[in-house]
Amino acid sequence: MIREFKSADLDKVMEIWLQGNEQAHNFIDSNFFKQNFDIVEMLIPMSTVYVQDLDGVKGFVGITENYISGLFVEQGYRRQGTGKALVNKAKQRYNELFVHVYKKNTDAVNFFLSQNFEIISESINEESNESELLLRCDIEHNVKIGKCAL
Q1: Is residue 146 part of a domain?
Q2: Given 3-state DSSP classes, what are the helix, strand and coil percentages for the chain, each rounded to the nearest 5?
Q3: CB count in 10 Å sphere of residue 112
Q4: Which of 2, 19, 40, 121 has its CA at 20 to 30 Å from residue 72's CA atom?
Q5: What are the residue ranges of helices labelled H in the chain?
Q6: Which residues belong to any copy of the N-acetyltransferase domain (predicted)?
Q7: Residues 119 and 131 sit within 8 Å (Cβ to Cβ)
Q8: In a domain, 148, yes or no
């Protein structure tokens, strides 16, 4: 079940965030994420966050305006539809979505491409000095065909 974030979810969301970053971004020193932990922990409640609750939080998507600031799924629940369900929840709320993904994180790049996102630019992330892609999805609501139709 996908539901809105509750303050009681914060510890589990942060655990998934840290582990997910360390697993997906082995090309970045893990201290980078540990140093940003407190900032992210403070920002999570300020964002729109949905969690996948399957007898406990197994994944989440954080959205700021129409920007996906984070999509993370617990390792044992990946490739089972959780990420897709969370992105679809975000698609229900917006006509357009954006997300940055590290270019070396090919699993994430391929996932977002499979969800009808398109790469619109490439740049260097100033904090990590790694190449990242900006992807966009235009969403057409209440239709069965179209780029990111729901």
Answers
A1: no
A2: 40, 30, 30
A3: 23
A4: 121
A5: 10-24, 30-43, 82-93, 106-114
A6: 1-140
A7: no
A8: no
Phi, psi for 24 (deg, rounded to 5): -85, -20
Q: What is the average pLDDT across 137-145?
A: 74
Per-residue pLDDT tens over the stretch 15-71 = 999 999 999 999 999 899 999 999 999 999 899 999 999 889 999 999 999 999 999
User: What domain count does the chain have?
Assistant: 1
Determine the Cα–Cα distance for residues 28 and 44; give it in Å rounded to an integer: 22
Q: What residues pair up with 146 in beta bridges, in sequence order?
A: none
Q: pTM (2 decimals)? A: 0.88
How far apart (Å, rounded) are the C-alpha atoms in residues 21 and 32?
Answer: 10
In a domain, 150, yes or no: no
Cα–Cα–Cα angle for 28, 34, 37, rounded to 5 degrees: 120
Q: Is residue 111 part of a domain?
A: yes
Between the alpha carbon of residue 45 and those of residues 62, 74, 122, 146, the distances in Å are 9, 19, 29, 33
The closest alpha carbon to 133, from 118, 111, 114, 149, belongs to 118
For tokens 């539809």, name the residue: 81
